[in-house]
Design brief:
This protein has helices spanning 15-24, 51-69, 96-99, and strands at 33-34, 37-38, 45-48, 79-82. By secondary structure, the protein is of the alpha+beta class. Strand 1 and strand 2 form a beta hairpin. The radius of gyration is 15 Å and the shape is globular. Pfam families: PMSR.
């Protein structure tokens, strides 16, 4: 399972900017899939920690949908859910790209718009 846990300083970047960046770094229109990887562990999801984050995530999602995906006939399927207990990925997935330099290309190196 691949997990991304992002911590941010709201003094440096707003939550809305963070959510939009998340959408720019992957395909949020494929259900339970990223590239050739298929299964529920590859779903696109945003886990919120407050009602304000939930509201912002939904507003940004609607804006990104209207501007970038609706014109292409695509629909964002990213789940927006309250955060629950979190476990770090197992050691084999920690620093994956450094341990596997010939492995997957990191999608965050290419913005989609």
């Amino acid at each position: 399972m691949l997990n991304r846990l992002h911590q941010f300083d709201p003094e440096k970047v707003g939550y809305a900017e963070l959510v939009e960046f998340f959408y720019r770094t992957h395909n949020p229109t494929t259900l339970n899939r990223q590239g050739n990887d298929v299964g529920p562990q590859y779903r696109s999801a945003i886990f919120t920690h407050s009602p304000e984050q939930d509201r912002i995530a939904k507003e940004v999602t609607a804006d990104v949908q209207a501007k970038h995906f609706e014109p292409k006939g695509l629909k964002i399927v990213t789940a927006i859910l309250p955060a629950r207990e979190w476990w770090p990925a197992d050691e084999s997935h920690q620093m994956y790209l450094f341990k596997n330099p010939n492995g997957y290309q990191c999608e965050t190196h290419r913005l989609h718009w």
